[in-house]
Design a protein that fits this description.
Layout: H1 11-17, E1 24-25, E2 28-33, E3 37-42, E4 50-54, E5 59-61, E6 96-99, E7 107-109, H2 111-117, E8 120-128, E9 151-160, H3 161-168, E10 176-181, E11 194-198, H4 199-202, E12 208-213, E13 216-217, E14 227-229, E15 242-248, H5 255-258, E16 262-264, E17 281-283, E18 290-293, E19 301-302, E20 308-315, E21 321-327, E22 335-336, E23 338-339, E24 349-355, E25 361-371, E26 394-400
Parallel strand pairs: 6-15, 19-26
Antiparallel strand pairs: 1-2, 2-3, 3-4, 4-5, 6-7, 8-9, 9-12, 10-11, 10-15, 12-13, 12-14, 16-17, 18-20, 20-24, 21-22, 21-25, 23-24, 25-26
């Protein structure tokens, strides 16, 4: 691992960007925000200040004010790992191996071969941790207590996963494709972070092996030199530092499929992964419809003498956002927000609404997204043991003086 801290010299500008958070504590910056939660601000090498959840493995979320843009800056993009050993991969030594019992000709590709031998494509897609907003579940559930910043929208450039798999030849017995990266655990007993995809999703034209992010090489903390992009599905499948693809004739039975990242069956309108389903549970797959207010904070005090612009983003698993409605009176009345540019069905969609308060007082602001499929956000989160898919309508309170 590289040096842990180099952020203190940036603290003044970072605090200003984060709205004046101003408490310095121990090895990081800490501030009580909104509900009073103590938030630790820290910076990994190559990143600007983010909200630290854990250092080893590194798990950092993006402050939501950086979501007030079509694409999340690379140096502000969230970081998520399960394993603590994250090697500095050298391009000249990196190889992607394609094998498994259901391929005809195993392959080994360098990054240069990946770039030159296959058609390059770009896609705008939201990368979202399955546990985003977990801290808002009541009663609390186990796991990293993510706020709303375990996500980021980016323009990804790479090659189609199906083209690379086709180069190895897929046998008719193929059922799943397992996915592995270069990171590993400290202890030999730590399960490797290996996932699998149903063959149909692996062969979807939107599933990519990406080597660029927002027009630049992938940052180290976001998967350099190549990672998987599985648009519309949660980021647990977006394997970083990709090293191996194995086409399998039987269901992959590793820990991160058989035990972790599972949800109660039929509780969510998720995409199917029949080979990994049991009578009661299934892997988490598709992102659910959701939205976030990006320019206002719960408990914020503003003037009632001038209009207030409410801004945010909305997203779903690939049907696209049809509308966003905003209430300024706790849900009694709703007003349709204006949607901004559409960057594609897997990208989030920016929206805004002008609110003209008539008098001082307390205002309850709510935002609710609806997708083209007709799915809309519930008023309360759907309970599940691991705190996944929190997509309840967001509610914040403003004090207008």
């Amino acid at each position: 691992m590289v040096d842990r801290r180099h952020f203190i010299k940036k603290s003044a500008s970072s605090l200003a960007a984060l709205g004046g958070l101003a408490l310095l504590q121990r090895s990081g910056l800490a501030a009580a925000i909104g509900t009073g939660k103590l938030t630790i601000l820290d910076a990994l090498p190559g990143k600007e200040t983010l909200i630290k959840q854990t250092y080893r493995p590194p798990n950092y979320e993006t402050p939501i004010n950086y979501f007030d843009a079509p694409f999340t800056p690379n140096n502000r993009f969230f970081v998520r790992y399960h394993n603590a050993v994250i090697p500095e991969v050298k391009i000249g030594e990196w190889r992607l191996r394609i094998g498994g019992d259901a391929v005809r000709t195993p392959l080994e590709l360098s990054l240069e071969q990946l770039r030159s031998d296959f058609e390059q494509v770009e896609i705008a897609a939201l990368c979202l941790c399955s546990g985003n907003r977990r801290e808002a579940f009541q009663p609390p559930v186990p796991g990293l207590q993510w706020g709303s910043g375990a996500m980021g929208n980016a323009l990804w450039r790479g090659v189609r996963l199906k083209d690379v798999l086709a180069g190895a030849g897929i046998d008719k017995s193929a059922l799943e494709v397992s996915l592995a990266g270069a990171d590993s655990g400290i202890l030999p007993t730590t399960p490797d972070f290996v996932k699998s995809l149903p063959l149909a999703k692996a062969l979807d034209e939107n599933s990519l092996i990406a080597f660029e992010m927002n027009g630049e090489p992938l940052p180290h903390w976001n998967g350099f030199p190549a990672r998987l992009i599985i648009p519309g599905w949660t980021a647990t499948y977006w394997i970083k530092h990709l090293t191996a693809l194995n086409v399998l004739s039987k269901p992959f039975d590793g820990f991160w499929m058989k035990t972790a990242y599972r949800i109660p069956k039929d509780r969510f309108p998720n995409g199917q992964f029949s080979s990994q389903e049991t009578g009661t549970a299934m892997p988490i797959t598709e992102i659910v419809v959701n939205s976030l207010i990006t320019n206002l904070e719960d408990g914020q005090t503003l003037s009632s003498a001038k209009p207030i612009e409410i801004k945010g983003v909305a997203w779903d698993g690939g049907n696209g956002i049809a509308r966003v409605d905003v209430s300024t009176d706790g849900g009694n009345n709703w007003h349709q927000a204006t949607l901004k540019q559409d960057y594609g069905r897997f990208s989030w969609r920016q929206w805004h609404l002008a609110f003209e308060p008539k008098r001082p007082g307390t205002y309850r602001i709510m935002a609710r997204a609806t997708s083209h499929s007709g799915a809309s956000q519930p008023l309360e989160p759907i309970p599940n043991p691991s705190g996944y898919h929190h997509n309840a309508v967001q509610k914040i309170t403003l004090q207008l003086a």
